[in-house]
């Protein structure tokens, strides 16, 4: 018996089924490989184990302390994606305490980018993939670089430079607005803006960028518009409890 958290047989079966249902939808509409990241925030470590048991290795978490705790009690070959709002003061904790941090998807300032790089370099650990978060909808309550923020170009240049030792620029991330994700139109305009920005940045900086866009309510549309990584929580794990 391993010391990993145990999951009941019923829960194992139900999570496996919902994961496979989402995965088959993803595979049905994508012509190129799309990564499905299982967003497990506020769900118990035993739920993560259930999917781990059937081969899932990419999980997304939103809260630094919760991620650190889960990473300590779960298998070391899980690829963790930090997808929550990142405070500058927490960059150090992330860099130091999660050896297998696969990606930080919510870098929204040059300062945080540099802080994360410096801390990771001094503490050691695998290279971290970076997605720059973009506030495509321009909503005030959303984090992310504004579409025309010059600091965005500065951050891309830093990630490309020799100065940057422990981070790798992987792509752009956005959370579409509720209005766009529920509107009847053919296209999600927030996703469209992210695609256009990707093209501009690739042209200007000579980089290759992937796109992390799409959640439970809009991942199908996101894939149709070119997403390479979708972050799905509720459709796999069910409704989340309130955070206290
Ligand atoms: C919670 C969260 C998700 C998952 O949302 P669901 O609607 O439950 O699929 C995806 N991305 C981010 C950034 C999140 O915070």
UniProtKB/TrEMBL annotation:
Q: Does the keyword Ribosomal protein apply?
A: no
Q: Has keyword Membrane?
A: no
An example molecular function term from Gene Ontology annotations: pyridoxal phosphate binding
Matches recorded under InterPro entries: Ala_racemase_N, PLP-binding_barrel, PyrdxlP_homeostasis
Biological process, per Gene Ontology: vitamin B6 metabolic process
Alanine racemase N-terminal domain: which residues?
33-241
PTM sites of type N6-(pyridoxal phosphate)lysine: 41
Q: Which residues cross the membrane?
A: none
Q: Which cofactor does it need?
A: pyridoxal 5'-phosphate
Q: Which Pfam families match?
A: Ala_racemase_N
Query: Could you tell me the keywords of this UniProt record?
Result: Pyridoxal phosphate
Per the similarity annotation, which family is this?
Belongs to the pyridoxal phosphate-binding protein YggS/PROSC family.
**What function is annotated for this protein?**
Pyridoxal 5'-phosphate (PLP)-binding protein, which may be involved in intracellular homeostatic regulation of pyridoxal 5'-phosphate (PLP), the active form of vitamin B6.
Q: What is this protein called?
A: Pyridoxal phosphate homeostasis protein
Species annotation: Suhomyces tanzawaensis NRRL Y-17324
């Amino acid at each position: 018996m391993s010391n990993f958290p145990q999951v009941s047989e019923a829960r194992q079966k139900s999570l496996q089924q919902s994961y496979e249902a989402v995965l088959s939808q993803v595979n049905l509409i994508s012509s190129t490989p799309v990564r499905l990241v299982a967003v497990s925030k506020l769900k118990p470590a035993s739920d993560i184990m259930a999917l781990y048991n059937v081969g899932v290795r990419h999980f997304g978490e939103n809260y630094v302390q919760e991620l650190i705790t889960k990473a300590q009690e779960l298998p070391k070959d899980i690829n963790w994606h930090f997808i929550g709002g990142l405070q500058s003061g927490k960059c150090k904790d992330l860099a130091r305490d999660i050896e297998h941090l696969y990606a930080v998807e919510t870098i929204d300032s040059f300062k945080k980018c540099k802080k994360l790089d410096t801390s990771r370099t001094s503490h050691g650990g695998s290279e971290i993939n970076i997605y720059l978060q973009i506030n495509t909808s321009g909503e005030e309550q959303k984090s992310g670089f504004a579409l025309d923020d010059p600091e965005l170009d500065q951050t891309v240049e830093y990630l490309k430079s020799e100065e940057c030792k422990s981070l790798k620029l992987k792509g752009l991330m956005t959370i579409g607005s509720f209005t766009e994700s529920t509107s009847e139109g053919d296209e999600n305009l927030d996703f469209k803006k992210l695609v256009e920005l990707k093209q501009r940045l690739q042209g200007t900086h000579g980089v290759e960028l992937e796109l992390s866009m799409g959640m439970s309510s809009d991942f199908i549309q996101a894939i149709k518009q070119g997403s390479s990584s979708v972050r799905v929580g509720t459709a796999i794990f069910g409704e989340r409890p309130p955070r206290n």
